[in-house]
Amino acid sequence: MSDYKDIIRKPETLNWFKAAMGMNITRHCLLDIVKDATQELYDTIRKEINRKYGILEHVVCSQCHTPNVLPCDTDNKCCHYKYGSCAFHDIHKSQHCRANLCNEMCKEIVYHHRFRNRSKSKSFQGPTWENTDARKWCADPWNIAKCYLSKDGYKDVNKADDADFNGMVNVLINCEFFQMYFKDDLTQKENVCTKARDVGREVRHAPAMSMISQDSDRAIDTLVALLQSL
């Protein structure tokens, strides 16, 4: 036990703790913004579908599963063919929404993805369809935001409050709609959000939960810059 007390008192451990707390505070500050913006994203999608196809905004659907409205294509990163059939579409086949709504919502989700034009690139992640449930798109806009989370570890994150710092930042990076909330240009390869994401990785993967003071100070400065850009 005395060994652990010594570790906790080490300046390097305190530096790491300071950076970790900075991440937690930043996540808390981002949470309400992500919630409000996700609702606004849903409203914007519905207005656009109404403009294009005349589908009124009070029309909802809760019957379409995600595979129903997603074309079967390996570019979706969730369609895997084995013995001539796709496991993702094995139960729920591609079909057109009876309300003429969900297929168009699917297209709008793709449209708002920052990397939608890189579908042939190996680095393309695209909307993470495995995370979301199309049956909930009209009732719970967070299920739309989940399309912009990374693939691993977020399928069961069923509300924004349960998303970690990395999840919050990934939504901001991957969904172009969030640009309106930032002064910084998020189209740049390096921006306040990508730098904050890198800080998150450094803190999570810090050996023995320790950091030198220069690294922890840089981490805090990066997080402050993210919040100041809002």
From TrEMBL:
InterPro entries per record: DUF4559
Protein name as annotated: Uncharacterized protein
Organism in which the protein naturally occurs: Dreissena polymorpha
Upper classification of the organism: Eukaryota, Metazoa, Spiralia, Lophotrochozoa, Mollusca
